[in-house]
């Protein structure tokens, strides 16, 4: 059964130095509060996994928490580049960042294999691209029935997956709706999971298109109101598009990023509920 | 650059979006990349192709936004969709089996065979001159859609002889390559830029200039092309944007 904990406790207990950590939320329900808590607790040597390492990973990478990134698209959506990510890849600042690069279809299938308890997934992908030359987790496989050449990618089984959802009940059952990306797969693929939610409620009222993660499939649930900001939580708040624009100038320079880190992460009062 | 025709002034970017929108037909199912492709696809849906089905990789089938989405995950795409689905389903059930007519992509670099680079600039992957965002959904969109349209601002830097990195395959190194690689779709059949429109030569698959936008000279296109450009013997000129097209595009861009 999922335990209801504070965000600080959840990160403290579930995310360790050197872990493989997946934080998912495809443009919606991005676990930003949890990301900043990981920075605040000064985790290091993490292998970060995420299809779209946008601002949430730019922050973790800039803060020096990551040793490696497994991903398929690293940009500031609708704005441009991730400057901390680029600085890490091009200049090894603040620490070198190893990358393992896939396509979205490859990453999604790696989570599906992980959630399914299979060692790898098969897809029709990557053929003719330069990705397999640089990513050794892309191999060719021959279909034993038709002889077709296909791509094989290994399962992702993170030490811990972190996602954000709209609600949980007091027993720790999690409810989310709207764009649900690969969150379910990421949680089911992981050894441990932390789900932050907008609110913990007495009863989960059904919502069209909802995904429910039963309490027994989740390790810890933490209430983190506004925990997806600057991304959005459908039914709670909209995407803060201005923040994404603003991040371009904050993240562009090491100085301005470090100022941000001090002011908005390390100096923030953490309220433990 | 802006061009004046009759009583209208418009930018080359507007001409590009309008030319790209015109390429989309009614009833087509279109997998839409963000940025220029999304602008064009939404314009098409609001001008001549009202039943164009927009599919976004964030997990929406049949989105009908009344403004331009700020990102592929903009809430308006989910709220106005026929169906909202998980990301593995987008790629495995909808894209991979060939259910999508047109993949509409942008590019940082595009070469003469329509191969797309959105990964790194420079020839050393480990020490790139510029690190770009990466593949996203594009490699499989380019592989599995029945055809691919690319929309890109054209310059010698973006229109190159050979891409530094093949993120998404166009026509590989020429005719027959897609079949050899087992790529089911036809690949890029149309490339729309701010200067004109290119189509692959049926014999070689090399991109050939087939249309120039109003006010653009062939010489200008040649100067903005990183290979020895071939001009189609049937070169034509793009119609200027209509008042309706311009007004609709501007209203879309202004809507919040």
TrEMBL record, chain A:
Gene3D superfamilies: 3.30.30.40, Glutaconate Coenzyme A-transferase
MF GO annotations: CoA-transferase activity
Residues making up the signal peptide according to the UniProt record: none
SUPFAM superfamilies found in the cross-reference section: NagB/RpiA/CoA transferase-like
Record keywords: Transferase
Annotated TM spans: none
The keyword Transferase is annotated on this UniProt entry: yes
UniProt similarity note: Belongs to the 3-oxoacid CoA-transferase subunit B family.
Protein name according to UniProt: CoA transferase subunit A
Species assigned in the record: Prauserella cavernicola
């Amino acid at each position: 059964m999922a335990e209801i904990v504070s965000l600080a406790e959840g990160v403290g207990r579930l995310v360790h130095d050197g872990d493989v950590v997946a934080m998912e939320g495809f443009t919606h329900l991005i676990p930003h509060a949890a990301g900043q808590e990981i920075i605040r607790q000064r985790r290091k040597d993490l292998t970060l996994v995420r299809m779209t390492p946008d601002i949430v990973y730019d922050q973790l990478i800039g803060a020096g928490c990551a040793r490696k990134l497994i991903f398929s698209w690293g940009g500031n959506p609708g704005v441009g580049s991730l400057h901390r990510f680029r600085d890490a890849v091009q200049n090894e600042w603040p620490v070198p960042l190893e990358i393992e690069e896939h396509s979205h279809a490859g990453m999604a299938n790696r989570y599906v294999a992980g959630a399914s308890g299979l060692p790898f997934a098969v897809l029709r992908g990557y053929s003719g691209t330069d990705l397999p030359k640089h990513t050794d987790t892309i191999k060719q496989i021959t279909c034993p029935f038709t002889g077709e050449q296909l791509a094989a990618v290994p399962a992702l089984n993170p030490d811990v997956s972190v996602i954000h959802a709209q609600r949980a009940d007091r027993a720790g059952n999690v409810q989310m709706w709207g764009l649900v990306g690969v969150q379910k797969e990421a949680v089911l693929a992981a050894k441990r999971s932390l789900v932050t939610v907008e609110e913990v409620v007495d009863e989960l009222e059904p919502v069209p298109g909802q995904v429910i993660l039963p309490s027994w499939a989740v390790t810890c649930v933490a209430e983190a109101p506004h925990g997806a900001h600057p991304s959005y939580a459908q039914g709670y708040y909209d995407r803060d598009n201005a923040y994404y624009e603003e991040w371009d100038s904050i993240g562009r320079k090491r100085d301005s990023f470090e100022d941000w880190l001090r002011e908005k992460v390390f100096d923030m009062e953490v309220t433990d509920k | 650059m802006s061009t004046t025709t009759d009583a209208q002034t418009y930018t080359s970017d507007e001409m590009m979006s309008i030319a790209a929108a015109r390429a989309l037909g009614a009833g087509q199912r279109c997998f839409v990349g963000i940025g220029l492709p999304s602008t064009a696809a939404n314009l098409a849906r609001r001008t001549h192709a009202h039943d164009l089905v927009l599919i976004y990789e964030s997990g929406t089938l049949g989105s009908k936004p009344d403004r331009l989405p700020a990102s592929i995950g903009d809430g308006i795409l989910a709220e106005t969709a026929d169906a909202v689905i998980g990301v593995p389903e987008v790629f495995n059930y909808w894209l991979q089996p060939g259910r999508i007519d047109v993949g509409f992509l942008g590019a940082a670099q595009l070469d003469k065979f329509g191969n797309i680079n959105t990964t790194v600039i420079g020839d050393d992957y480990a020490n790139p001159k510029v690190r770009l965002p990466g593949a996203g959904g594009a490699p499989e969109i380019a592989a599995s859609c029945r055809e691919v349209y690319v929309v890109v601002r054209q310059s010698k830097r973006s229109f190159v002889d050979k891409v530094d990195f093949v993120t998404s395959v166009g026509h590989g190194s020429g005719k027959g390559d897609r079949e050899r690689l087992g790529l089911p779709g036809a690949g890029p059949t149309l490339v729309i830029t701010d200067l004109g429109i290119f189509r692959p030569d049926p014999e070689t698959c090399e991109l050939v200039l087939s249309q120039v936008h109003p006010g653009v000279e062939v010489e200008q296109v040649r100067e903005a092309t990183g290979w020895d450009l071939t001009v189609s013997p049937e070169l034509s000129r793009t119609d200027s944007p209509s008042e309706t097209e311009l007004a609709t595009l501007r209203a879309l861009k202004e809507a919040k």
